[in-house]
Amino acid sequence: MKKLFIAIATSTVLFATQSAHADDVQLVDSASMEFAAGTATQMIRLGVQSDWNKRWFESNGTHLSGYWDLSFGAWHGTRCRGVRGDSQDLVDIGIDPTFRFENDDKKGFYYEGAIGMHQLSKFYNNDGHRLSTLFEFGDHIGIGYVFKNHWEIGAKIEHFSNGGYSEPNSGVNFFDVRTIYHF
User: Fold this and answer.
1) Domains of the chain, earliest start first
2) Which of 18, 37, 40, 98 could form a disulfide with 114 if both were Cys (CB 3.0 to 4.6 A apart)?
């Protein structure tokens, strides 16, 4: 599991670096790292983002915008099938269209929300929470702050579920802390 995550992390960083410095087209605007905790589950996730460069509802120096967030995460559950000490590891690959309410200069506080699609490498069954499909919806609401030096910190509450199209579907919730660097 650690080797897979290191390979994904290295690939993500290389892709972000290559894309951020391409002369003709900039596909990636930022790269992120997240740490998250849920009920008997921890997650680490790396991602790259691509800004939509759109502004809606401009007013008083603020607007609504958004970005694509492509992420690769590793989950570690410590109560697989409800058994303490029995662990479960899985990988999550996701894409989230994210809406963000922010200042026009894209600095300072922001608020955001998203509903995206995620593919899990295994069925999740940890601490009484079960997901019966590998395809899951991931949604979140968050708040953060973008500094003038291109760094950003944020926090979000995230929920994974298949939307009820297959049972069991008890859902999984995380509290995430994230840092992002904008190129």
Assistant:
1) 2-182 (2.40.160.20)
2) 98
